Amino acid sequence: METTEIILITISGADRPGVTAGLTAILDEHNANILDIGQANIHHTLSLGIMFESNSKDSGEIMKNLLFKSSELGVNIRFKLISKPQYAEWVNLQGKNKYIVTILGRKLTAGQISAVTQVVLKYNLNIEKIVRLSGRVHIERKEHQTRSCIEFSVRGANLDLEKMRRECLELSSQLSIDIAIQEENIYRRMRRLICFDMDSTLIQTEVIDELADRAGVGEEVRAITESAMRGEIDFSESFKRRVSLLEGLDESVMKDIAEHLPITEGMARLIRVLKKGGYKIAILSGGFTYFGNYLKEKYGIDYVYANELEIVDGKLTGKHVGDIVDGRRKAELLHLIAQVEKVDIRQTVAVGDGANDLPMLEKAGLGIAFHAKPKVKENAKQSLSTVGLDGILYFLGYKDSMLDTDWV
Question: 262 and 380 in one domain?
């Protein structure tokens, strides 16, 4: 009766065409069954691993031929025998207890990466793979390097995910980086709907504050806005109080403000990539429909839900029309749009900065607090504070190398 052996070979050295082809051809000659294969390349340096099963009587001949071939190719090769119980245990772990840790910043230092890996170690997680998602770093042209991002694939059982997230949030603040931890599952790779807050998220201002400046009540309205965003007062009540102060403002002011909205860094690139990727995009805003619709037309956004200002004879009345889009309503709208688009709620993303965004951040499959207030960061699943909106692409698993000029 024939017996089989499982052997792991690891190859390292200068990368050159034909290494994988030459080694796998030898395995083919002996009808070896490849069980796993993986390869990485850093600055023309190869690291290749192949696990294969072969008849025990052929193992010696295979290893001899592989050794000769690796010498011919100028690479190093090592052999390791894997027992059947070890292999069975490894197979049983497939797809279980796997997480993705994303580290993002304007730049990443050895100290920052070391600090994150210490947290990974503390929670008994094993790093299985490290991938760079951002583009290659320019040494001479440092101004071209606007962000750095790497991704760890880690595995471990009995992980207290929320506790680890809280610890990583504290570390993010200390080291000026962003750290996202997501369970690796099918939904992470298949997001289909993304819902954005507008003010201080897609645009770098609160429109109601801009309107208030034109009405001469800017300081008073800003104080109410900040209190509401921190969650200190009810959003609906604060909204009514702020809108009432706009009474008498000329309607023409809104057009001028819309045409000069300060767009958030990375917003246009993010929207272009998401649209190319087939996402449905929505604005769910406690701001105003006039400005949401302006962005919708300019950037091709699919849905806008916001608040309608009452206008009579070309003047704002200080009142609104219809229901107020508050935090509860945002979460309802996210769920409703997902149903209309036939998207599982776990395939949705929500992005916002204020306390009134927390309900939709909680409901979405991936909730991201963007340059948010402390209370929002503490309660959101993930946060992004070091780079522009297009940093979200890394949380979705995109690599800069995927995004050629046709995409960006």
Answer: yes
Predicted TM-score (pTM) of this structure: 0.87
* Domain identity same for 209 and 322: yes
- Give the CA-trace dihedral at 200, 202, 203, 207, to 10 degrees: -70
Predicted confidence (pLDDT) per residue in 83-99, tens digit: 999 999 888 877 678 99
**Domain match, 113 and 130 both:** yes
How do 126-132 and 178-183 pair as beta strands?
unpaired
Q: What is the pLDDT of residue 136?
A: 76
CATH code: domain of residue 126: 3.30.70.260
Closest CA to 118 of 143, 88, 152: 152
Would 407 be classed as within a structural domain?
no
Check residue 406 and give its pLDDT. Answer: 61
Whole-angstrom Cα distance, residue 38 to residue 48?
Answer: 6
151, 394 contact by CB (below 8 A):
yes
CA distances from 389 to 127, 189, 214 (A): 28, 19, 28
Residue 229, pLDDT score? 72
The segments of the chain whose pLDDT lies below 50 read: none
Confirm if 171 and 119 have CB atoms less than 8 A apart: yes
Of 27, 57, 92, the domain-final residue: 92
What is residue 90's predicted lDDT score, i.e. its pLDDT?
83
Q: How far apart are CA 213 and CA 266, in angstroms?
A: 27
Q: How high is the pLDDT of residue 228?
A: 78
What is the number of domains present in the chain?
Answer: 3
User: How do residues 161-184 score in pLDDT, each as one tens digit?
Assistant: 999 999 999 999 999 999 999 999
- Cβ neighbour number for residue 202 with a 10 Å cutoff: 27
- pLDDT on residue 143: 53
Nearest to 273 by CA among 404, 131, 137: 404
Residues 132, 258 within the same domain: no
For β-strands 4-14 and 75-82, DSSP reports them as antiparallel
Confidence at residue 225, expressed as pLDDT on a 0 to 100 scale: 80
Could you tell me whether strands 348-352 and 366-370 are parallel, antiparallel, or unpaired per DSSP bridges? parallel
Task: With respect to residue 123, please indicate whether it lies within any of the assigned structural domains.
Answer: yes
Q: What backbone torsions phi and psi does residue 236 show, to the nearest 5 degrees?
A: -60, -40
Which amino acids are annotated catalytic? 197, 199
| Domain limits for position 40 | 4-92
CB neighbour class for 203 (10 Å; exposed up to 12, middle 13-18, buried from 19): buried
Cα separation of 398 and 147, whole Å? 14
